Amino acid sequence: MWDSQSESITERSYINLNPNMFEQRGQSWYVLTDIPSDLIVQVGEFSFHLHKFPLLSKSGKINRIVYESRETELRKVSLNELPGGPEAFELAAKFCYGVAIDLAAGSIAALRCAAEHLEMTEDLEEGNLIVKTEAFINYVALSSWEDSISVLRSCEELSPWAENLQIVRRCSESIAWKACVESTGKPKGSDPNTSLDRWCEDVSVLRIDHFVRVITAVKAKGMKHELVGAGIMHYAMKLLPGMMKDGSPGPGEDGGASKWNCGPRAITAAKRDDPYSSLERKDQGTIVESLISIIPPQNDSVSCSFLLRLLRVANMVNVSPALVIELEKRAGMQLEKATLSDLLIPCYNKNETTYDVDLCQRLLEQFLIQGPIDVSGPLTNPVVNAKPIVARLVDSYLAEVSRDENLSLTKFQALARALPGSARSCDDGLYCAIDSYLKAHPMLSEHERTRLCRLMDCQKLSMEACAHAAQNERLPVRIAIQVILSEQIKLNNALANASSRDHNYQPVIPNTKTLFEETPQLFQDGWENAKKDISALKSDLETVKTKYLELQHDMEGLQQQFDKVTDFKHKSAWSSSWKKLVKMTKITTIEKAGSGSPAIKTPKRWRNSVS
User: Fold this and answer.
1) In this model, does residue 471 exceed pLDDT 90?
2) Sequence-ordered list of residues with C-beta below 8 angstroms from that of 290, at least 6 positions apart, any chain
3) What is the CA 438 to chain-centroid distance, rounded?
4) Whose CB has fewer CB within 10 Å in the chain, the N or C terminal residue?
5) How far apart are CA 178 and CA 145, in angstroms?
6) From CA 20, how far away is CA 28, in angstroms rounded?
7) CATH topology of domain 4-139
8) What are the pLDDT digits (tens) for 359-374?
């Protein structure tokens, strides 16, 4: 144990020390003084050759270790669990020797935690290190935006000390308060994007758990949800590599013109080469799950494009199914704001389609669950129904995925039929998708092709689409006939509309059911024209048949003459009998003439004829 005589000698010696002479030699620190060191403090791989009295006078922990030790002269103390490590203990040791230390935002949190661990309280000495560091944090670091960010960032390696000492909470609330004040109290005429860019960029350097604390704090203090969402989107784009589009600029830059590299080859390569290693997968999954949990509930807080990209990453890193469902619901609620490139999400299951068609189906179901949705445009424009916008998006998606040989007809039909018929005013996009599917799947039976083509309404095809479909050999014959009839009706409609400008006729409604019910005469006229064309074809066919029969008759006559020539020698008996018959006929005629009957001139030669 340390006796009073040793203590007094050490105290007198300490007064005569030159404490400014701290020197590092490799992994050891020394105090350059004539008095030899009597205590070695081991912190990690570094050893500090110090003196007992300066440390015992200010550190309750070292004091207790020395006095509770069973060794008479304890010369070595291990502090491997000291928060902040050797760097923090170096500053604490200099403080014990009375050396003026420079406090900075980047190191104050570690020094505060080290002081707490060393028990440098006011009970040992007034103005001890705990009070000094607390004063610097409260009155210096937290008064500055940059210092608050720096202190919070330094707390990443100080868990759980920084949490228990409320350093993380105080920094988060300080950042939140300053962010809210800056976003709402900026002077008139200032650029609103300045504070937004600064807010997004500065908080994106934080670890995910501290970022969540800041977002939670700013939401509690009433920051606008658009600014909160902007911070979340910027953070995700910076920390999640799967969020960035190929060739797109970095966070904060205009990336609207960039596109995903979502071709079949790229997606196949993505399935083969996972962009996340097994070690990164857990960390990335934690980030995604945390971001999903803090997205503000308002629909316009984050973009639909961001939600779909986050969903893409969530599928890659195996995020919790409950959170994936929540993300799908959020994305489906604003599906009308999505783009085709965002919707082309790869399917990471083996032996499946290139793109996740089932996911698109679920997004569409979530969209329809919301009921009638209106998209508000500028104040001068009326409210627009969102379903036609989604219908065009789905048709474009179908046209893209239809080229996949693994896409079944059932899935194609289910996705095409998910939207009601009223959502599509024109079926040209659906026709293009159907034609692309027929081209990529040439082995479909006639029945399957007919089922596929029934997805579209021929009456909703434009004149250009009708003209293309009428010559499309991939379409079933029955569908082609329907297209031709539809084109005929559209021509009649066009004529009727042209006449209406001069004669005030009512325009013909281009709906099949309405045409049958309200304009039967127009349809009858079209059908009569079609029947006339058919009759003309039949007449031409009959003419050809007649000419064929005439030629056949002439051929038979020529054959008969040929037979007469070849069989002349075999006809002598028949010829004599025929001459006798002619002679008898002449005699009978002369006798009748002599009896007063009118004479009949008998031709010299009868011609064999066919009646």
Assistant:
1) no
2) 208, 209, 211, 212
3) 26
4) C
5) 7
6) 16
7) Potassium Channel Kv1.1; Chain A (3.30.710)
8) 999 999 999 987 545 4
Task: Give rounded-to-5 percent helix, strand, coil for the chain.
Answer: 65, 5, 35
Q: Which residues contact 154 (CB under 8 A, 6 or more apart)?
A: 105, 106, 107, 108, 109, 110
Give the separation between CA 455 and CA 417, rounded to whole angstroms. Answer: 7
- Which whole-number Å values give the CA distances from 272 to 267, 315, 350, 357, 404, in the listed order? 9, 15, 10, 19, 18
Over residues 86-95, the mean pLDDT reads: 94
At 250-283, the pLDDT tens digits run 443 433 333 444 444 444 444 444 555 555 777 8
Predicted pLDDT at 190: 52
For the cut 80, the answer to whether the pLDDT of residue 535 exceeds it is: no
Residues 185 and 175: their CA atoms lie apart, in Å, by: 15
Whether 377 contacts 319, CB under 8 Å: no
Residues in contact with 263: Cβ distance below 8 Å, sequence separation at least 6, in sequence order: none
Q: Find tokens 């200099």 and name the residue.
A: 94
Higher per-residue pLDDT: 416 or 571: 416
- Residue 163 confidence class, pLDDT cut points 50, 70, 90: very high
The DSSP output letter for 423 is: G
Label the pairing between strands 28-31 and 46-50: parallel
In this structure, what are the phi and psi dihedrals at residue 83, rounded to the nearest 5 degrees?
-65, 140
Give the C-alpha separation, 209 to 326, whole Å: 20
- pLDDT per residue as tens digits for the range 105-140: 999 999 999 999 999 999 999 999 999 999 999 999
Residues 332 and 304: their CA atoms lie apart, in Å, by: 8
Beta bridge mates, 29: 24, 48
Q: Which residues does 484 contact at the CB level (< 8 Å), separation at least 6?
A: 466, 470
Q: What Cα–Cα distance (Å) separates residue 9 from each residue in 3, 14, 264, 272? A: 10, 9, 82, 74
Q: Could you give the CA distance from residue 214 to residue 368 in angstroms, rounded to a whole number?
A: 35
Extract the tokens encoding 431.
């026709």
pLDDT band at 378 (very low <50, low <70, confident <90, very high): very low
What are the distances in angstroms from CA 330 to CA 145, 146, 292, 349, 396?
A: 33, 34, 10, 23, 22
Q: What is the mean pLDDT of the chain?
A: 78
Measured CA to CA, the distance from residue 226 to residue 232 in angstroms comes to: 10
Q: In whole angstroms, what is the distance from residue 111 CA to residue 130 CA?
A: 9
At 504 the pLDDT is: 53
Q: Domain ranges for the chain, please list them.
A: 4-139
Angle among Cα 313, 317, 319 to the nearest 5 degrees reads: 90
The DSSP line for 548-561 is HHHHHHHHHHHHHH
Scan for tokens 């661990």, then name that residue.
117
SS3 248: coil
pTM of the model: 0.72
